[in-house]
Specification:
Blueprint lengths: L9 H13 L3 H13 L1 H23 L4 H5 L1 H28 L13 H13 L2 H10 L13 H28 L1 H5 L1 H24 L2
Helix pairs in contact: 1-8, 2-3, 2-8, 2-10, 3-6, 3-7, 3-8, 5-6, 5-10
Length: 212
């Protein structure tokens, strides 16, 4: 069926996508950090936010808007530094909230505002220009240029990639949360976990800013 839309080697694409999804990256670190510091619900919502950002990247690539990032160094740098600053902002916010509010051992995390966690996941993914460039370089390898189907093959491949990625990330989020449940119930350790999450966010931001 995928041949009808000009897609070649679909099953090879799916296998490659799964391998790429299970390879730890910035998105995985973000999800694991949320799950460890704030519990399963925050981890799951962060997965949904990251996946939403990924689907938006897919649509941008499908309709050609991401080409701007590939052709303009200025546009690429603006998005890159905006993403870096946002991650650093998230890390600093974690430290400020940690000092402002005591941790309750009877709740997953008093700061786990799920709509905010979701929004931050979306923005974190959208402000990573490397994701947009990944789609522009990876997806076309499985599309027959001789068959004109507009954005359809991009949408099918992108949807497949993020469906498998979402399933894997949900497993990772639940596992990370489960393995650290006992630690989060200890208020002192919970604060340490939140501090570590802040450090990781800041580190991700600095890595994005200075990585060529």
């Amino acid at each position: 069926m995928t041949r009808m839309f000009g897609i070649e080697n679909y099953w090879l694409f799916m296998l490659s996508g799964i391998i790429l999804n299970i390879t730890p990256g910035a998105d995985t670190m973000y999800i694991v950090t949320r799950s460890i510091a704030q519990g399963k619900n925050a981890g799951i919502v962060s997965v949904l936010g990251i996946s939403t950002g990924g689907l938006i990247h897919t649509m941008l690539a499908a309709f050609g808007l991401s080409v701007i990032l590939a052709s303009s160094q200025t546009a690429f740098n603006i998005i890159k530094y905006a993403g870096a600053l946002y991650l650093i902002y998230l890390g600093v916010s974690v430290f400020l909230k940690r000092k402002a509010r005591p941790t309750s051992p009877d709740h997953q995390c008093p700061n786990a505002n799920l709509p905010v966690v979701y929004f931050q996941g979306v923005v974190t993914n959208l402000l990573n220009p490397k994701v947009a460039l990944f789609f522009l370089s990876f997806l076309p390898q499985f599309i027959d240029p001789g068959q004109a189907h507009g954005p359809v093959p991009f949408l099918i491949l992108g949807g497949t990639f993020f469906t498998t990625g979402t399933i894997w990330c949900l497993i990772v989020a639940c596992a990370a949360s489960y393995l650290t449940t006992a630690l989060r119930k200890n208020s002192k350790i919970s604060k340490i976990l939140q501090s570590i999450s802040g450090i990781i966010f800041i580190s991700l931001g600095l890595n994005l800013a200075f990585r060529r």
